[in-house]
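Case study 2.
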Amino acid sequence: MIRKFKLYMVLAAASLAFSSCLDKYPENAIPSDEAVNTVDDVNQLVIGIYDSFTSSALYSGNLTLLPDIQTDLVYGVNGNTNVYGEIWRWNDILSTNTDIESVYGALYAVIGRCNFLLDHVEKVRAGVTDDDDLDRLDQYCGEAYFARALAYSELVKLFCKAYESDEDAAGQLGVVLNEHYDSQEPMVRATLKDSYQFILNDLDRAEELLQLEEDFDPSVDGALFDTVYFNEYTVYALRARIALYMKKWDEAVDYATRVIGDGEGGSKNYFLSSCTEAISSTQSYFDYMWTNDHGTEVIWKVSFTLNSYGGSLGTVFFNYDQTSVRPDYVPAQWVLGLYDANDLRASSYFAYYTTAYGLYWPLLQKYWGNTEFQSYNIYGLCMPKVFRLAEQYLIRAEAYAEQGNYAEASNDLSTLRRARYQTGGAVSVNADNWLEIVEQERVKELYMEGFRLQDLKRWHKGFEREPQDQSLENGSSLKVEADDPMFVWPIPQHEIEAPGSQIEPNESNR
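Prediction:
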């Protein structure tokens, strides 16, 4: 059934400041069976689900930063406070690492909230007769299914091996799958194949419940881009990403095309934010996306307000104290060398600063922070853009190349580059160079957005660090072989040792 996507005013961004997380009821709390009785009660649970994504352990902090800091994209510098030091040094990553524990816990907290809603919504539905209220309940369930799928997709990305084939995945460890909130489900890891299938099943449900009406017109009903809510296109964006990770090239092309909107019957709802088209006298649309957290290519972002926000992505790259900057990490020189003179992403992402300890270096301007927050002396705070159109072009280009369709892969990469270049930008790939060019474009476009560790893992590529100016001695000289066990994060030790746990560790557990 095609339903119209409704942006209910009760889910306005300001409402996201309210946290109704019901992870576990204390003994003196209202019993859960009595806590959810009305459509508005279910709405409050949805607000709690969205709010849980503001956690600094997730997209506004560890979940975004750690997978890239662990690789070859940044260097710790002299003066570093040792934040994320164990992760950056690679060989010091332990199953007791609190940063990894926080990611694991925060993702399962999202799942718990979703399960709580889905376990109680049918009781509410049984007492509802109003069609609009029934539509609202469907919408809320769709959002919960999508949020659960998103959380599980991040867990399998970080704590499991790469998906090679259905046959191989049937013999690999996945994650603990919880479908209910107050259940006696065993604490045991499903297979990787079953874990991915669980995610896909949730996305099937979400797609049905979050679909737009066939006559939906964004110009009348409101633009789909730059939204803080889930809709059918967030489902397609995640499906495209997962299909890429599962090596399902046809599906990756199909779902990415639905988002891009240039296929047969496609609806163009998102547009690459241009580096050359100006939104004001001083800024391009691309710059504005990072300085003001608004962009025509943003498919879903985590909403922050001045009264409720999550972590600070920019802190470790600046540590600004209103007087000087003291970065913990600076960009790798090899990354900076990827951008040619016409590539305007370089000036949007990086700017030179003289630091308080004498290092003159281009720092990650991309996460300097939202200008509205800066007016209140809050720096480094950005709304995480979890799904962007640019990623969909990169997904489709890689999938096309894997199919041997180098012409279409070249077209997608060229389209993205033309939106980022002062002039030119066309590129041609072939059987010999496509992976190298796709890798470079993913680094240049998605720098420090949390994709690098997974990319290297699924490509079975290692990396090497060589010392650069003022980099820390411990960690700057590092050679990581392909398929090193540490590409898969260790399962937190407290989960393995929990009473009744049957959770098997990863090779990286120690």
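The beta strands are 74-76, 173-176, 189-191, 298-301, 329-331, 350-354, 360-364, 385-388, 463-465, 478-480.
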